[in-house]
Amino acid sequence: MDNRTTIQISEKLRKELRILAAKRDVSYQELLKDMIIIFKELDKEKTIISIPNQLSKRIGAQIKNTDVSSVSEYVTFLLRLVLSEKQDKAVISEKEAEILKNKLKSLGYL
Amino acid sequence: MRRLKKIRLTKVIAVLLLISLTFLLLKDSFLNNNDKIEDMKYSKILLIGIDGMDPKIVDKLISEGKLQNFKKLKEQGSYTTLGTSLPPHSPVAWTSIATGTNPGKHNIFDFIRSNRERQLPELSLAKSKTGISGTDYESYVKAEPFWRITSQAGIPTTVIRWPMSFPPEEVEGNLLSGLGVPDIKGLLSGYTFYTTSDFDPDAESSKKTVAVENLGGVIKTSISGPNIRKGNDITSVNVPLKIDFDKASATITVQDSEYPISVGGWSGWIRLKFKAGLFKNVYGICKAYIVSTEPEFNMYVTDIQIDPENPLLSISYPETYSKELAQKIGLYNTLGIPEDTNALIDGKITDETFLEQCDQIEEERDKMFWEEFEKFDKGVFAFVYDTSDRVQHTHWDDKALEEHDKLVVNQAIIDYYVKKDEFLGKVLNKIDDKTALIVLSDHGFTSFEKNVDINSWLSKNGFMTLTQQPAENQYGELFEFVDWEKTKAYSLGFNSIYINVKGREAKGSVEESEREKVVEELMQKLGKLTDPETKEKIIANLYKREDAYQGDYVQEAPDIMIGFEPGYRMSWQTAVGGATPKVVFDNKKVWNGDHLVDPEFVPGVLFTNFKINNRNPNQKDIAPTILNLAGLKIPEGIDGKSLL
């Protein structure tokens, strides 16, 4: 048996999701898969933090018409991004070095 | 009470009058902006760039009667060499042409710059930043290009494939970015070679080679797409690829679409869709070329480029323009440098196939040009062709280091120049007397016969200390072998030397107060560098940044710029922060022409259909000339002077 997550949705929501999938140029199944990932994320234990209303509004405006569905999702993403940055900028990982070398070498002059 | 009303009424009338007056004044000024160009001798300014067009070749071909239209333009207006930038790299030179400024003001000093925070080389083309919706790009250019000034004045302005115009900015027309536009992986080039033959896994090209198995006339493999981050790992998203083939032809099947292709021939554009994350699809386009199907199967697939109809990131202004253009002229190469010189150098495609690819690209560019030209009835239209640069880099037969009387020009280069002459003929027939025409190049060309490894020289002369000696295929790229505490200077890019200054470089060792002294000492020693074989000098000039540049960004410049003699070029190992065992060694690559020498040896060309006032113009004079032709005031801070 595959490791599956079942989600139940109403017929009305199913219709809306199909429209949404068509708009975003992804298949209905792809959209559902993505939603399951988000739902799983939402299920995780959370800590509520406060940010100024004004900032929240600005973020809301910035994510309007994007794939990001909520201010919380965006803030979580940004924090992960910040935390994933190396503390010592002068240290370069092997993978990063490989990517950088490939990038430089993709210049025809090399 | 009545008096109060009267005052109020008077005030209202005064305000209304003021508003009307302001409106009239503004209206006049708007009209002036639009009318300004009508009052000028020229209502249209047409600028055609041909990257790397060399005056030596132009002179030779004109004298041989092969460039009749360039000759006609020369006689009608003017023809001269055009002074190029220090260093004469396309990103530096085209930015100087666009902004009328020196690199100290526009901030582009080399193809590759030093990221001083990390003490690593990085590309100068555009700064990339990973964000919520993928990678964002930001230009390093700090000065204003002419298209921004003309657009702000309300003059219709269209710019197509100008190098360093990426990311695209708003103009009063259309803008399609050129050099700087990456592929869907964020790289500037990259092919894939599918083969049933054995290949050397240690060869540099092995990273781009995919071993496939012949399952009786069928090959099942995949195409590698964009990189995505999964936790701490970075992997690529792939799509399945199937090829059914026989002796003469094949069918490529990708994502339910079939593409017929003949052996020894090109496919049409193959469309690809990669699922690259939550709600995110990345669209790419590529072409395939089947080299052989027997006894071994060999197929070359171009870089996966951004699909102009569904761009991963904006490559045009307005953003929809790249799609509209594709709908008019068909899909087209969007990559900054789509001519695959690496595949040619690695021996994956023949010279003939490479030149076919160049022809296809040139045809697309012609379609782009005429599409915009037909609509061009007022303002500025700037268009840059750059396949010329790639053809010359790979077909430069003339040897600067050998004594000979006549310039030797490869037929592929002659063919290219002749084709551009035919194109110019059509342009000359179609333009009216209200059109000012400028045809120019950013630099010329010379040979690349010997590599000069400046990091190797620095390490042998006490300016750099290495933790281990470089060996064949172990060059310590990205300064892997450098002991920074004992290093006074380092080199990267194609003409740049940096002093390892404390506080400025992440691992600096030289006090700022000592910087000047190290610069002097280094210049004095390096200036004497000679070719061990011929005993001839290798470096024509060395430049201190303060002498070479002026402006707010001089501090960003390398401390020393090298002006090589013709025939010599920086080794690619130094360019990416490595070092080789020898300082000077032969260049055996197909990439045999270059222009990264002292600017005095590789000026560009300038043709105009009007007379100019300067016999020795510099490329910094072009932007002010365009502004002058457009009837606009030349802003302060521009270094060049109008040629009118």
Explain the overall architecture.
- The complex is a heterodimer of chains A (110) and B (644).
- Chain A has 110 residues and is mainly alpha-helical.
- Chain A has one domain (11-105).
- Chain A is 61% helix and 0% strand.
- Chain A has helices at 11-24, 28-43, 53-63, 71-84, 94-105.
- The radius of gyration of chain A is 20 Å and the shape is extended.
- Chain A starts with 10 loop residues before the first helix and ends in a 5-residue tail after the last helix.
- The mean pLDDT of chain A is 72.
- Chain B is of the alpha+beta class and 644 residues long.
- Chain B has 3 domains: 44-107 and 145-178 and 378-445 and 602-629, Alkaline Phosphatase, subunit A, CATH 3.40.720.10; 192-306, no CATH class; 449-593, Gyrase A, domain 2, CATH 3.30.1360.
- Chain B is built from 16 helices and 31 strands.
- An 8-stranded mixed sheet of chain B has the order 2-31-22-1-21-7-8-20, with helices on both faces. Chain B has a 4-stranded mixed sheet with strand order 10-9-18-17, with no helix packed on it.
- In chain B, strand 13 (249-254) and strand 14 form a beta hairpin.
- The longest helix of chain B is centred in the N-terminal third of the chain and has 38 residues, at 2-39.
- Classes of the chains: A mainly alpha (110), B alpha+beta (644).
- Chain A binds chain B through residues 24-26, 30-31, 34, 37-38, 66-68, 74, 77-78, 81, 84, 89-90, 92, 95, 97, 99-110, and chain B through 111-112, 117-123, 130-133, 186-190, 207, 227, 232-234, 275, 278-281, 337, 339, 341-342, 390, 393, 477-478, 494, 506-507, 572, 575-576, 591, 594, 596.
